């Protein structure tokens, strides 16, 4: 299983669920107030169900993997307050075990006093933390509903545009058919009149008719093509309608789920006092800030460069050496230029490279010269680049003439836009 960008895994959720179970067992063993313990145990059971659901939840149902990872990471932050609460329960358990002197009534009285002074307020705070954590997770899981509504609006707009295009095409086709009928009637009338007036023009009229028929056939062919296009547009509209219906069903399910969550929230909030509600509001704001921070960290996390060979830049230098360069690193001109200086050290043309007397050409675009100022806009994954060194005073040597100055090179120089290259 792939580990998300925050460094948690399925084992973290299993550990958190085990921690919830351990806290519930310790709370039962304390023998505290039945009301406090019963409500706290219900909240712990609800939290365990939410964590189990998040552990098994696939990312395919969400618009953003970062959103789901941030929700999971925010849910795992409950481990810290649970661990602290478990330590307090264990301390209370030790104190309760020491309280064994006196009669039965005396022990019960001491236990009630100890529970009221040590654990009652802590249980209320823990319930508030659990409730707001569950509320925040439930609200964040319903956020993709807005994305589905935006997608539905986009599909409706696209369908409306297709309907307008189809209507315009149909009106244009009707107008073309009417115009062609008028032209045909005019052509037939002119032909008939020409036959009646002068039989000697029969050949010319026939030629004219042949031309008219040829044009009519071309126009019929165009009409057939337009009909095929109209059918394709109708199919696209039908597909869009199917997608819109599917989106509507998904939206209805999301709205029902949201209503159920709101009803549960109202039931839970009715059990708390105004002081606890203010504490819940502060906890909710803190949880949302944690989620936004985690989502921002996910968007800012750098991605590792790809090692696929088809994404590399193929570069052939002036010494005909072939280099396969990773695009993630060499998409910057400064890195590429530093690589050139290192590769040509102690080799011919090192001085020309240091002075910048060379050009880089894109062989897949008819040898177009790639300028350093437009490097990022001109070089892409899979580009094939070639290098030529600029040589001044070519032809000054009578021995070599138009040849490359290097003795082992048989290349001929060429002049392009005032630049002599080999």
Your description of this structure?
The protein has 422 residues and is an alpha+beta fold. Helices cover 68% and strands 7% of the residues. The chain has twelve helices and seven strands. α1 runs antiparallel to α2 and α6 packs antiparallel against α7.
Q: What's this entry about, in short?
A:
Helix content is 68%, strand content 7%.
Report the mean per-residue pLDDT as an integer: 77
General shape: flat
Strand content is 5-15%
The separation of the N and C termini measures 54 Å
Name the helicity range: 55-70%
SSE map:
Blueprint: H1 10-30, H2 34-56, H3 65-76, H4 79-98, H5 104-141, H6 144-197, H7 202-269, H8 274-300, E1 313-316, E2 322-325, H9 327-330, H10 333-343, H11 350-355, E3 358-362, E4 368-370, H12 375-378, E5 384-389, E6 414-416, E7 419-421
Parallel strand pairs: 1-5
Antiparallel strand pairs: 1-2, 3-4, 3-5, 6-7
Helix pairs in contact: 1-2, 1-4, 2-5, 3-5, 3-8, 4-5, 5-7, 5-8, 6-7
List key phrases describing it.
alpha+beta; five-stranded mixed beta sheet
């Amino acid at each position: 299983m792939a580990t998300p960008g925050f460094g948690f895994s399925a084992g973290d959720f299993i550990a958190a669920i085990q921690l919830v179970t351990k806290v519930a067992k310790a709370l039962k063993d304390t023998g505290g107030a039945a009301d406090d313990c019963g409500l706290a145990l219900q909240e712990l059971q609800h939290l365990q169900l939410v964590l189990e659901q998040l552990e098994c939840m696939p990312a395919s149902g969400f618009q953003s993997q970062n959103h789901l990872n941030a929700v999971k990471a925010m849910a795992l932050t409950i481990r810290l307050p649970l661990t602290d609460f478990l330590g307090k329960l264990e301390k209370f358990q030790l104190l309760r075990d020491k309280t064994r002197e006196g009669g039965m009534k005396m022990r019960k009285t001491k236990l009630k006093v100890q529970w009221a002074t040590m654990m009652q307020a802590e249980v209320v705070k823990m319930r508030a933390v659990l409730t707001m954590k569950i509320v925040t997770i439930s609200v964040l899981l319903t956020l993709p509903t807005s994305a589905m509504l935006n997608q539905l609006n986009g599909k409706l707009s696209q369908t409306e545009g297709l309907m307008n295009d189809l209507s315009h095409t149909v009106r244009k086709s009707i107008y073309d058919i009417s115009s062609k009928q008028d032209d045909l009637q005019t052509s037939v009338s002119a032909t008939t009149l020409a036959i009646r007036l002068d039989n000697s023009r029969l050949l010319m009229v026939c030629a004219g008719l042949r031309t008219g028929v040829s044009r009519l056939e071309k126009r019929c062919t165009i009409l057939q093509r337009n009909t095929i296009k109209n059918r394709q547009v109708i199919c696209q509209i039908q597909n869009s309608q199917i997608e819109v219906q599917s989106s509507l069903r998904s939206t209805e399910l999301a709205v029902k789920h949201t209503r159920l969550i709101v009803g549960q929230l109202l039931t839970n909030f009715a059990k708390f006092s105004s002081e606890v509600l203010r504490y819940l509001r502060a906890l909710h704001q803190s949880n949302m800030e944690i989620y936004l921070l985690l989502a921002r960290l996910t968007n800012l996390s750098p991605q590792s460069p790809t090692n696929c060979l088809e994404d590399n830049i193929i570069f052939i230098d002036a010494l005909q050496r072939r280099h396969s360069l990773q695009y993630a690193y060499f998409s910057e001109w400064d890195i590429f230029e530093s690589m050139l200086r290192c590769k040509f050290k102690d080799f011919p043309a090192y001085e020309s490279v240091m002075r910048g007397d060379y050009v880089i050409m894109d062989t897949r675009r008819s040898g177009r010269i790639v300028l350093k100022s437009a490097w990022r806009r001109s070089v892409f994954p899979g580009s094939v680049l070639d290098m030529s060194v600029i040589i001044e005073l070519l032809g000054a040597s009578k021995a070599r003439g138009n040849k490359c100055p290097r003795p082992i090179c048989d290349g001929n120089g060429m002049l392009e836009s005032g630049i002599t290259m080999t």
